[in-house]
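Hi P.,

Sorry for the delay on this. The queue was packed all week, but I finally got your sequence through. Input first:
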Amino acid sequence: MDLTSLDLSEKRVLRALFELARCDHPAHPDVLTRALDMDPSAVKRALSSLAARGLADGLRVRLTLSGLAVAVHAPPLDEDVLTAIGAPVTGAPDVAVPLWLRGEAER
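Then the structure:
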């Protein structure tokens, strides 16, 4: 599964679920609808489609492990969307890199 088979609304919902999970915020269709400024039926269609592809759990409104792997490569959301869902707006992801993986200059 890759991003090329997803439409724009599916990509946006997928990435929003990723951002919500990153900041440990609960996801709900209403939250996605408001933050993404999408029609509620479009959000539900996108969630259903993502669930059918095994990328999201539609009932729990969460990413699956496969969905997480794809969402990491989805286009970033606009700053206003990140702000609406309470995600950090910095350009760099909050990823801890173990010391043994860092180069000599980073240690």
